[in-house]
Design brief:
The chain is 54% helix and 20% strand. By secondary structure, the chain is an alpha+beta fold. The chain has one domain (5-100): Orthogonal Bundle (Arc Repressor Mutant, subunit A), CATH 1.10.10. It starts with a strand and ends in a 6-residue tail after the last helix. It has a 3-stranded antiparallel sheet with strand order 1-3-2. Helix 1 (14-21) packs across helix 2 (25-37) and helix 2 (25-37) packs antiparallel against helix 3. It has 5 helices and 3 strands; from the N terminus they run E-H-H-E-E-H-H-H.
């Protein structure tokens, strides 16, 4: 049950929110789920646009814990990928053909 709406609204796609926060789409989704479970936002998706409203609802502590576990797992995956990326041979990460011929399709 919504106790109070504030006049705050954010719109954008999951990818836009992810790019603006240097996060992955998955992490943004789970983070938004956590805020919703906390009772502080309500999210609606309309025509590939995510609409966020600030609300004051009662928190769902079980859902918050589930989201927190997912957030920890996603952050660990991101950290592992970043650690690999820092140490990996660049030729394994980037196709040299693409670099020498940008826009060329195989």
């Amino acid at each position: 049950m919504v106790q109070h709406y504030e006049i705050l609204e954010e719109k954008g796609s999951i990818s836009e929110f992810a790019a603006s926060s240097a996060a992955t789409d998955a992490l943004v989704r789970v983070g938004l789920n956590w805020w919703a479970a906390r009772g502080q936002i309500e999210r609606l998706e309309q025509d590939n646009t995510l609409v966020l409203h600030s609300v004051k609802n009662l928190p769902d502590k079980a859902q918050m814990r589930l989201c927190e576990e997912q957030i920890i797992q996603l952050i660990e995956e991101i950290s592992a990928y970043q650690a690999y990326y820092r140490k990996a041979d660049a030729s394994l990460l980037i196709n040299a053909e693409t670099l020498s011929h940008p826009g060329k399709k195989k």
